[in-house]
Amino acid sequence: MLNNALTRLQILQVEDNPGDARLIKETLLEAESFPHRLYQVGTLAAALETITAYPMDVVLLDLGLPDTHGLESVYKICAAAPDLPVVVLTGLDDKTKALEAVQAGVQDYLVKGFLDPELLARTIRYAIERKRWTRDLYERNQELEAIFHLSSLLTTTLDREKLFPGILDILTTQAKLEIQKQCGMFLIEGESLVLAAHRGLSDSFAAGHTNMTIHDCLCGQTARSGKLLISENCQSDLLHTIHLPGETPHGHIIVPLIGSQGVVGVLFLYTAAGYRLKEEKLRMLRTAGSLMGMAIENVRRFEEATLRSNTDALTGLANRRYLDFFLEKSVATARRYNRPLSALMIDIDFFKKYNDTFGHPAGDKLLKKVADIISSQIRTMDMAARFGGEEFFVLLPETDADGALNIAERIRLAIAEQTEVTISLGTAVYQQKSDRSDGLIKRADTALYRAKQNGRNRVEMAER
User: Fold this and answer.
1) Fold of the CATH domain 9-132
2) Are 333 and 339 in contact (CB under 8 A)?
3) Which CATH topology does 157-307 take?
């Protein structure tokens, strides 16, 4: 604004003394190359009403107003318009009061009896510039603070259940972005875009974006190009192809999440229709996108390594190491909340004979097939593990004795129908008063042994 000589500064003078008001007006008119428009009010109430309704560039404020006292007017004006510079013009030459005024938020403090045109014009210009510098520095500090919090989160957790929502929380609460507190993240898996987390969006949004690909809508455009995309209105942008019922006009900022191997996901933020973020904020989002992209790669590497260390290489089920961990956790939950927990011990009948007849490769293939059938018959919350050799263990949280028997029988029938072998199963229910994790395993194993003694291809329940 100040670089354009033709721009008129909009100045609000808050002064109740007509003589002083006229003096300031005449002083400003005498200043060279100082185009301006001066508005004058005589009370704090009128000043607050004016700065709320009209854009002003600076306020010239007298501290001796009829409806306020001392620095109260400074506090109220700064609270009503934090970005508006204030210059105090007063008849009191008091250095202590001047310091207090500056500490309260004014840019300068001038004594009316010592004014000249150039001093007043220069003070107003400098006040506007200092306020702009202060605001820019504040915003930059906020950006750096948000990046700091984001970096801290990204380097302290590899758990996607905590990481992804945590990222969105920082962007919606600490980054001071002028967004509508609605945002989310898609991860790229092949050509699919999988919704990893979102904030402020309805369940219908998640349902409407279930089968997203990199060829769909604005997020797909950014996923392919790797470039930050700004769309000012979802209803007029032809690239915005997925519309939901009741959708109101809004804008988007789509940020690529870029790792070492390219784009790994996209971050989308909602803005008011027609709104554009400042370039400084966009720069911060680009930086955040790079940090988030590297964090996503780290999460995926960690999950792959964890999966390998916890998975049986032949069957793809959990291995004994992970079974022990999951079992301890499940028993602790069942004990604490007094919830049911059951277990199945499974053994392939006459597996040694099958192996000797058809060879080890065929035996390995059979183990894999049995593992797949077991997995297909249980819920997502359950866990199947290879216990050792041809034995399998299934843990069933939130499942009582009857439920365990039903699942066991379903698995037994499926194996008999889909393979050339049968299985024997022992089931056990966690007992609050006496069981530890090894006790649950032991009682399920005892029931399995009884199933074998009683003719195999059957289910036996441990004593309760």
Assistant:
1) Rossmann fold (3.40.50)
2) yes
3) Beta-Lactamase (3.30.450)
Confirm if 451 and 426 have CB atoms less than 8 A apart.
Answer: yes
pLDDT digits (tens, 9 = 90+) for 398-441: 899 999 999 999 999 999 999 999 999 999 999 876 667 788 99
User: What number of H helices and E strands is found in the chain?
Assistant: 14, 15
Q: Is 390 an active-site residue? A: yes
Domain ranges of the chain: 9-132, 157-307, 320-461
Please give the Cα distance from 427 to 390 (Å, whole number).
17
Both structure tokens of 59: 């306020």
Do the domains spanning 9-132 and 320-461 agree at the CATH topology level?
no
Whole-number Å distance between alpha carbons of 230 and 294: 23
Whether 168 and 185 have beta carbons less than 8 Å apart is answered as yes
Residue 226 above 80 pLDDT? yes
DSSP 189: E
CA 413 to chain CA centroid, Å, is: 45
Report the distance separating Cα 125 and Cα 264, nearest Å.
48
C-alpha span between 167 and 169 (Å, rounded) = 5
Please give the share of the chain, as a percent, with pLDDT higher than 70: 97
Q: Token pair 């002028």 is at which residue? A: 178
CA gap 143, 152 in Å, rounded = 14
CATH architecture of 320-461: 2-Layer Sandwich (3.30)
Q: Which tokens sit at 103?
A: 């500490």
**CA atoms of 59 and 220, how far apart (whole Å):** 48
**Active-site residue among 145, 247, 297, 390?**
390
Strand order in the sheet with 250-259: 192-199, 183-189, 262-272, 250-259, 229-231
